[in-house]
Amino acid sequence: MTSPLAERLSQLGSSARTAVEDDRGRTTFAELMERALRVRGALLAGGARRGAEQGASQSSLEGERVLLLVPPGAAWVSAFLGVILAGGIALPLSPLYPPAELAWLAGDAGVRRILLGDELAAVAAPIAEGRAVLRVEDAERAAPGPESAVSDLAADDPALLLYTSGTTGKPKGALLTHRNLAVQAELLRAAWGFSEQDVLLHALPLHHLHGVAIALTTSLLAGSATRMLPRFDAQRVAAEIARRSATAVMAVPTMYQRLFEHVDRGGAPEFAAGARALRLATSGSAALPVTLAERWRDLTGTIPLERFGMTEIGVGLSNPLDPGGRRAGWVGSPLPTVEARITDDAGNASAWAPGEPAAPGGGGVVARGELWIRGPSVFKGYLGREDATAAAFQDGWFRTGDVAERSSDGCFRLLGRTSVDILKSGGYKLSALEIEEALREHGAIAEVAVIGVPDEAWGERVVAVVVPAPGREAECAIGPLRAWAKERLAPYKVPRESVVVGSLPRNAMGKVVKPELVKALVASMGGEERQLAR
Ligand code: MLC
Ligand code: AMP
Asked: Which GO terms of type biological process are on file (predicted)?
């Protein structure tokens, strides 16, 4: 079967409607597709030149991972689509990553070529050695590639590689296929009512599922326009909403919190009227506190549409488009084609039959346990990690690692994670083990435990509980520690706080008892000093 993603894109390719609006102007679908096909041509020609030496294929990149380092906007989208339409796998990475992290990710993905926006030349420089760098601006002027290859793309070909943190130290690359992306976009178009009349305000990072698939791909494939901002900036987003430049917005809870802070400071006086005029505002990637949902309702008359998703499964559960059916604190019921199951500690499974109506407001809790998901939006596997892929599935179901409960009327609520080592800060999923691994390289740190502490602004705040090496306590203070860690980790993984202790609480097996640390820290909050018992 050919790629449903490529088929939909070629249908849109003759449209004169706006596909992307960025700070440079508007780009129609026809212009975007022409630019994407030229990027594809450049990639295939470049691949063919190297292929001539190696005797490789010239009509498809055959799953080559191409790294995108391009600022958000039409050029980002044409680079992304160009890679996919060439039979490659797009790997978008954040320009905020320090060189060490970029180098590790590019190495793990086996990246040989980088598609570069000129503004990010300095970011790419440290990882350019041994790799070809292709300026998007040049690629967009190349001759389009051969026509036939687009129709040769298969639904099960991987199209997108997203790195996600897990319970192993380093992140794993999740491979999403053409089918995954097309199914996901169609599910959300239908569930959330996206149409050619919509303009989606987009200020999410593009190296994670929310920004690239849930927001951008859904909007593109629905034929909606996407208004892409260079980054999230509360003042700018509030101003865009105030002047009604969009009909829909997708955000993580921290973004809502930032918007309210901005409005409370007297910013964007027309904001409330603009927010009321939005057709749709969604929240996801982390739990939306009921207080924030209610604040939005006070402003607009409805709570945001909250849904549950994950890199490996896309959006699985969603509240309904009809505001009357939304329930604050709950993430809704399975989308069509998504099967959700709750499995309790005793291994008892409680399946949810898709199509059963979810009547709001009623019903007690009928199941509580780990949430498992099955269906065509579930990913293909982790790149080069057959072991981790196998471990992630059981009996054909993807085990999310989220603990959830289901009400008798088919609504789901997230209760937390099965692993204390997975944190969510500002919508980013973080691995405590990965951060600990980096911090252990610091000579002044004898022992360390990274924990997530509940936090109003971030959902969870990353805290490093540190046992210093003798006489080196000063180097473990948060200032120097953050400066040091920023050279090794993405800025949002860097601990916001460090707590110096004499020893870490351990169980009989020698494992650090993190829940105890979290409890002690929460209890000490509000005190003068963050000191734990020595
Ligand atoms: C930024 N910082 C963070 C942070 N984001 N620290 C912890 N957690 C975060 N999430 C750091 C900055 O590096 C900076 O450090 C300081 O905090 C203040 O930065 P800022 O400029 O105020 O923050 P900003 O850049 O505006 O970022 C906030 C944010 C961002 C909310 C816009 O975190 C963000 O874009 N989050 C979205 C994440 C996302 O898309 N997740 C989707 C995963 S997919 P310093 O030291 O310089 O002061 C998924 C599936 C699904 O979950 O269902 O959607
Ligand atoms: P990621 O691995 O970055 O895709 O993050 C996926 C994780 O985000 C899920 O496993 C959940 O833990 C969390 N998540 C996503 N949406 C929600 C939500 N609406 N409420 C609570 N947690 C969420």
From this structure: fatty acid metabolic process
The pair of three-digit structure tokens given for residue 227, joined into one six-digit string: 């208004």
Query: Both tokens of residue 437?
Result: 């691994």
Pocket residues: Cβ below 6 A from ligand 2? 164, 208-209, 284-287, 306, 308-311, 331, 400, 402, 414, 417, 424, 429
Pick from 157, 164, 186: nearest CA to 83:
157
Rounded Cα–Cα distance for residues 337 and 314 (Å) = 12
Q: Round to the nearest angstrom and report the end-to-end CA distance of the chain.
A: 63
Return the structure tokens found at 104: 């590790």
Q: Domains in the chain, please, with CATH?
A: 420-524 (3.30.300.30)
pTM: 0.95
Please count the other Cβ atoms lying within 10 Å of the Cβ belonging to residue 503. 11
Dist. CA 116–CA 128, nearest whole Å: 11
Ligand nearest to the CA of 283: 2
Q: Looking at the CA of 234, name the nearest ligand.
A: 1
Q: At a CB cut-off of 8 Å and minimum separation 6, what does 102 contact?
A: 93, 123, 126, 127
pLDDT tens-place string over residues 367-410? 889 999 999 999 999 999 999 999 999 999 999 999 999 998 89
Looking from the CA of 54 toward its CB, the CA atoms found within 13 Å total: 9
CB 167 within 8 Å of CB 402 = no
Q: Which residue type occupies 145?
A: G
The three state secondary structure string of 316-373 is: EEECCCCHHHCCCCCCEEECCCCEEEEECCCCCEEECCCCCCCCCCCCCEEEEEEEEE
Distances from the Cα of 133 to the Cαs of 34, 42, 77, 279, 532, in angstroms?
A: 21, 12, 18, 41, 50
- For ligand 1, residues with CB inside 6 Å are 204-205, 208-211, 214, 232, 252, 254-255, 284-285, 309-311, 425-428, 458, 491-492
Ligand 1 centroid–CA 503 distance in Å is 31
Distance CA 67, CA 106 (A): 7
Residue type, 226: T
Share of the chain above pLDDT 70, in %: 92
**Distance of alpha carbon 532 from alpha carbon 517, whole angstroms:** 8
Tokens for 460, please give them.
């969870």
Cα of 285 vs centre of ligand 2, distance in Å, is 4
Q: What is the pLDDT of residues 155-192, one digit of tens each?
A: 999 999 999 998 778 999 999 999 999 999 999 999 99
Which of 162, 255, 285 most suits a substitution to test ligand 2, by most atoms within 8 Å of the C-beta?
285
Ligand nearest to the CA of 251: 1
Which of 466, 447, 449, 453 minimizes the C-alpha distance to 423? Answer: 453
Burial of 345 (0-12, 13-18, 19+ CB in 10 A): exposed
DSSP 51-73: HHHHT--SS--TT-EEEEE--SS
Choosing from 172, 176, 308 the residue with most ligand 2 atoms within 8 A of its CB, the one to mutate for a pocket test is 308
